[in-house]
Amino acid sequence: MIFRKEKPVVPAVNTIFENALAVLGKEAQGYTIRPARMEDIESVIRINREALPENYPRAFFEDLFNSYGKSFFVAEAPGGEVVGYVMCRVEYKPGFFKTLLVKSGHIVSIAVLKEHRGRGLGLGLMAHALKSLYENYGCSETYLEVRVSNTPAINLYEKLGYVKIRVEKQYYLDGEDAYIMARPLP
Ligand SMILES: CC(C)(COP(=O)(O)OP(=O)(O)OC[C@H]1O[C@@H](n2cnc3c(N)ncnc32)[C@H](O)[C@@H]1OP(=O)(O)O)[C@@H](O)C(=O)NCCC(=O)NCCS
N-acetyltransferase domain: from which residue to which, for each copy (predicted)? Predict the structure, then answer.
């Protein structure tokens, strides 16, 4: 099912970034969003296992860190604990909004520990990732997969200007469908 192919009107990445910083300044005082370091991988794996059924071997996280480290961010709580992450991959693929091959920033995984949700960290992590995918990797689009039942994540992505492109039937191992969502950059 194709939802749309025309280029949507979306908020600019810089606007999203400034807005995210303002939200974090109000709702997440003392928290930091910063580029991930290799020593964060342990915490990232733990958060991934706690928050999502889609888990991966350590080498998968390390490969993304080594290859696309500039778009791998973590959220650090006031005490220094890593409580969220976003990791991405840069791919050449047919564009969702252009027929040509484009450089697309794939949001591979994002999660925030339950007790730290609802204060703008998901928004902040995504804003950092989008800005970096555009500025550091020259991506002209970004896309992701999300469970059709994952309302919090879908709302977050729509707030960031992602639109539903199509449904990928039985995308997940348990049989649930995914929405493919994408937006142009910047
Ligand atoms: C999705 C997730 C990363 C959001 O993180 P978060 O830090 O709680 O998100 P934020 O506080 O930055 O919220 C940003 C926006 O997301 C949406 N959102 C977040 N939580 C929501 C909820 N419980 N219900 C509905 N919308 C929600 C809202 O649009 C919100 O904006 P608003 O506060 O102006 O309403 C977090 O819920 C999570 O880790 N979930 C488990 C892992 C997961 O599902 N990852 C995505 C896989 S595709």
Answer: 31-186
Domain boundaries, the chain: 13-184
DSSP state of 98: S
Best residue for ligand 1 mutational test, from 26, 123, 125 (most atoms within 8 Å of Cβ)? 123
Sequence letter at residue 67: S
Topology, domain 13-184: Aminopeptidase (3.40.630)
Q: What angle do CA 138, 91, 173 make, to 5 degrees?
A: 140
Its pTM surpasses 0.90: yes
